[in-house]
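Deliverable D5.2: sample structural annotation.
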Amino acid sequence: MVFEDVYRGRSILPPHDVPNKPVLVRWDFTRPLSVDNVVPMDQPDADKHVRRCHDLKEKPEDVWGQEVRAVYERRTQEILKDKQWFMEMS
């Protein structure tokens, strides 16, 4: 769901290619794992993300830039909107 529906089968990182080996990785390691706290990346980018954001405690936007942060925020809003809709329909 997250990879195909929310991220349209593409990496969160520009140029938003279809990853050869897609990996879902926690965006913000200070928050719990949840559907609105994972992002798709190619394996080498995911390794870099874990190394810098988890091990070195850097912020994701410091590693990937504000453009990627903005994409993450837009996709998170889509997820929250869908969750709200689903709850209203239940």
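Annotation notes: Residues 3 and 53 are 21 Å apart (CA to CA). The mean pLDDT is 92.
The annotation will be released with the project's public dataset once the embargo ends.
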